[in-house]
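Work Package 3 (structural annotation) set out to generate three-dimensional models for the target panel prioritized at the project kickoff. During this period the team completed the workflow that converts sequence records into discrete structure tokens, so that structures can be stored uniformly alongside our sequence database. As a representative example, we reproduce one entry of 374 residues exactly as it appears in the project archive.
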Amino acid sequence: MRVERLTVREIELPLKTEFVTASGAVGRRRLLLVDLEDEDGTPGWAECVAGAVPGYTAETVDSAWDTITSRLAPEAVGLRVDDPAGVAAALGDLAPAEPMARAAVEMACWDLAARTENLPLAGLLGGTRTNVPVGIALGLAGTPEDTAEVAAAAVDRGYRRIKLKIQPGADLDVVRAVRLRIGAGVALTVDGNGVYARTDIDHLAALDAYRLQMIEQPLPADDIGGHAALQRRLNTPLCLDESIATLADLEEMVGLQAGRVLNLKPGRVGGFTTALTMVEMAVAGGIDLWVGGMLETGVGRAHNVAFASLESVGLPGDLSPSDRYWDRDIVEPPWTMDSGVLPVPHHEPGIGVEVNEELVRSLTTRKQEIRFAP
């Protein structure tokens, strides 16, 4: 099985409502899609999770475009991917500091391999769950009471966990209002996206009063030691996200006891091969796992659902159905939630949904195709 063609394209989709975090606001999502084809015409699809501007990480849509088209695609075309885990090794040295770009190519190869073997992607990864629990992330918007009403509506719809984006000046009041509105029995988490400082440790410790499932990434990504100090002050588990970009980062997290939970996004850490190794390390270190979201289309959602089907990935993820963000998703059928879970498509090969290629073409703002030339 050899990659005969790789196409990278940028599309743009408007979000149904603007999504606001401490890192900024997003109203329209620029996205990169990678699709591959082997010598028999079997496809493989994936999505790059980089944002339009730096903030969450240094990678952007534009930097990932350059990395994929100039460095990764020429190497990937012609590559044999019978064992998709080998793709990470083949591409790793080409873009060591661009894991999101690498992940888009590597994860498309996993989809291609699964389709070629007539296996669901979840099965190829080792996933056995038939459905995965769904949480929802609520952005920074309106008053604490407004957020509480939105959270209550999400609970009524069936979401298994509510996550609140927070920042200094918009944290304790919001959490208090939401907890009072939804009650003590609903899993509630908060996410600071790294905008707090070590001088805020006493303030953050006040969150213990609200019986949170976790506090996600309050301090900057490069301050794993600070998270360790904060975790010693807290009863609430800390969850790291942006801090864990490499296996060495995760090893440091475990060694320093800098948190008890990991938000593991395959598209952020270089792809499935690295993410699977991280699962093994986290389980050995006693760290709980879940899969976060990056405002993906149904293509990225499909990869996340497949990964979340692993038995070790037990906590509800940011895996909202298609209509949470998009008026019309680019996959058929769209992702739908029933009783707080998304079904894992174990009866379809690959990612389990079909890309609406006509719609994708209509949304494409730029495209580049690379073909194998023996």
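The mean pLDDT is 95.
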